[in-house]
Description:
By secondary structure, the chain is of the alpha/beta class. The chain contains 13 helices and 15 strands. Helix 5 (158-172) runs parallel beside helix 6 and helix 11 runs parallel beside helix 13. The longest helix has 15 residues, at 158-172. The two termini are 25 Å apart. Bound molecules: 1-deoxynojirimycin (NOJ). Residues 52-53, 55, 92, 145, 181-182, 243, 296-297 line the site of 1-deoxynojirimycin.
Amino acid sequence: xxxxxxxxxxxxxxxxxxxxxxxxxxxxxxxxxxxxxxxxxxxxxxxxxxxxxxxxxxxxxxxxxxxxxxxxxxxxxxxxxxxxxxxxxxxxxxxxxxxxxxxxxxxxxxxxxxxxxxxxxxxxxxxxxxxxxxxxxxxxxxxxxxxxxxxxxxxxxxxxxxxxxxxxxxxxxxxxxxxxxxxxxxxxxxxxxxxxxxxxxxxxxxxxxxxxxxxxxxxxxxxxxxxxxxxxxxxxxxxxxxxxxxxxxxxxxxxxxxxxxxxxxxxxxxxxxxxxxxxxxxxxxxxxxxxxxxxxxxxxxxxxxxxxxxxxxxxxxxxxxxxxxxxxxxxxxxxxxxxxxxxxxxxxxxxxxxxxxxxxxxxxxxxxxxxxxxxxxxxxxxxxxxxxxxxxxxxxxxxxxxxxxxxxxxxxxxxxxxxxxxxxxxxxxxxxxxxxxxxxxxxxxxxxxxxxxxxxxxxxxxxxxxx
Length: 467
Ligand code: NOJ
């Protein structure tokens, strides 16, 4: 499958308030269908005070008025299905917004310190202690992310029960699956013991790496599979994709119950042949990788791999087997935008609105956009449509080609700086180095970024070939 990630606030505004909304998504679904995607994943649009870009949910079974109504959600599901697109919603089981009624009605559904202060040395992902004092009760609650996001206590059986109802609510409205947020945080050490000192850099980059702790007790408890299994039990037939922020070799207890987990190892791999090869091999070994190179949390592709490597990165993403996730705007070559001062962790830049056309605000809104809308160097969606040399055409061609690829990944020996792998009769090769390199022996080039001559793969160049 190719799943197209929509960040609803930045996709299309239909009512002129400057923020994208669900009706706007429907207006632009033809763009997604024309790309050839199989499904859409919508980041949260639930009622939220927006302390964490919508990942602080105040009502799970509802739609924030800024995005529309429940009937708009129903209409969106129907409109996607009409176009043959499956629909994944984003669910956030680790924490609620502090404004969710559960926090006051069911305080025992959350994790509390039994001291007048933090229970342990755990740190929050976005900095500071993971414990804050609730000014109403005076107690100290745990928050793995912002203080506005108290962690639910998945060791209280009422919590999986309540969350199962959330999944069933949306399944009954027709969604096909879920992207499940921050799954490795669902169960922590039952005794809430301190995290030990780190003995090296973290496995994957952390937003705040200042504490020098190894997050061994604050996440990914040995019995984590119990909680993941409870989510699966509530949605036996749904497509479930886990956001688990661990290396591929730690994903087994999650993959036992889920269809796929994102491969963050590849997303974060420095653009060096050895590292990319190793990340592909590790994720492919799980047999259930959800490949992803970009999302609303991390710098855009031109900012991370360099503009000259963006086409090769797209080719890599879309030729790996299984499920590939494509973030809105990547198909236009979007780079990071401006910081609007909304997200305290500085992620506004990765959430700039879509540049559709040459009208005001590039067609995103008739009002004042919540973040500036810039056209990428490759042009707006309208400029790129119909141009066979455009980034958009490149993505369309790759998705069409993807349908013809089969077989597992076999990583091949290749020239220094070249990543090459076989899938069935096809060979895929990318030059990540600074010098032109010979591609592996191939019979026929099926798709290539411009080759400088018939034999050399230029830096940033990539091919799919029969070999
Ligand atoms: C992962 C989400 O993608 C991110 O945007 C959010 O801040 C954290 N989980 C916490 O929900």
